[in-house]
Amino acid sequence: MGENFEMVAKTLFGFEDLLEKELTQLGAQHVKKGVRSVSFLGDKGFMYKANLGLRTAIKILKPIKSFTVNSEQELYNKMYAMNWSDYLKPTGTLAIDATIHSDLFTHSLFIAQKSKDAIVDKFRDTTGQRPNVDLKFPDLKVNVRIDRNQCTISLDSSGDSLHKRGYKLATNIAPINEVLAAGLIMMSGWDGQSDFMDPMCGSGTMLIEAAMIACNIPPNLMRKEFAFERWEDWDVDLFEKIEASLLNKTRDFHYNIIGYDKAPSAVKKAQENVKNAQLEDFITVKHEDFFKTQKGGENKLHMVFNPPYGERLNIDLQEFYKSIGDTLKQNYPNTDSWFITSNMEALKHVGLRPSRKIQLFNAKLDSRLVKYEIYAGSKKGKYMK
């Protein structure tokens, strides 16, 4: 195998522990948690494996240089001094992405522009040719991160955010991010050993992520492209070997995954996405109003969903959340119900006491993932058995 190098997997706030565990289980070395990120060591094959197999990562970055910077000119000079021909042909294309946490530098677009100038000027001065910028499908995507006066230059091995799994043909008005959906399901402790339900399934993201977790299917198998496929050292044979080894670890699933939505258009979209993900054997989507349904059978049910927050949908939230509580209490015994919301006021109207409450962000919305345990029979009866 090749040499190990440092990589950084980026994630959402609150998912650092999940990602750390995922990386450890995949076989990463020297795994170290940061804020919205986890760093680790691995070789080229592991970089392919991380992109294919991590459910809670948004990007896998490969740092290639770190230095201090105290001015834009110093950034330009130090980037110009790097040997960019190791990573890109003079006729290639590039894109720069900059993130900044600094009082010295305040404008990420300007930093990206300055970085691009340094790389382009270096090629022009040494070869007489210059790479062009291509924001959509660059041959090389460079990440520039400045924290105070520490600058890290990384190659972005993923390209598009890893939440773009490739199975979604259709979405509804407020689709949940696939990485967020996978993280919520993992956080809820679902292990594929019971039936699973999303009673407000929208375009089916939660259902598909749940099925992939249950069957241990790598989440990013259906992606059209990763950025590393355009790198100078792209090894298609190694990639296919890694892909086959991950597919070898899939497992059977012997329960049901059920999705309800009261909008026929959402049901149709969910069914299309499930079919596209080739998971129709495991997932059933029905046109139902959750508030008029009840649980089938006495077995344990695991429920994870993303109810409307009132941000984009015009509903009476207090009444809506009260109906969630009433439906769970009256019609769904022996159910562990988890959902995420950013509306803390509406949450008070559920009328049940949550047994867990975890702070997360849905996009930029400060949210809570809450768990309600609905017992079979009375709670007292449960402990007297």
UniProtKB/TrEMBL annotation:
It comes from the Bacteria. Residues 46-157 form the THUMP domain. The keyword RNA-binding applies. InterPro entries: RlmKL-like_Mtase, RlmKL-like_Mtase_CS, RlmL_1st, SAM-dependent_MTases_sf, THUMP_dom. The lineage of its organism: Bacteria, Pseudomonadati, Bacteroidota, Flavobacteriia, Flavobacteriales. PANTHER family: RIBOSOMAL RNA LARGE SUBUNIT METHYLTRANSFERASE K/L (PTHR47313), RIBOSOMAL RNA LARGE SUBUNIT METHYLTRANSFERASE K_L (PTHR47313:SF1). The keyword Transferase applies. Keywords: Methyltransferase, RNA-binding, Transferase. One of its GO terms (molecular function) is rRNA (guanine-N2-)-methyltransferase activity. This is Class I SAM-dependent RNA methyltransferase.
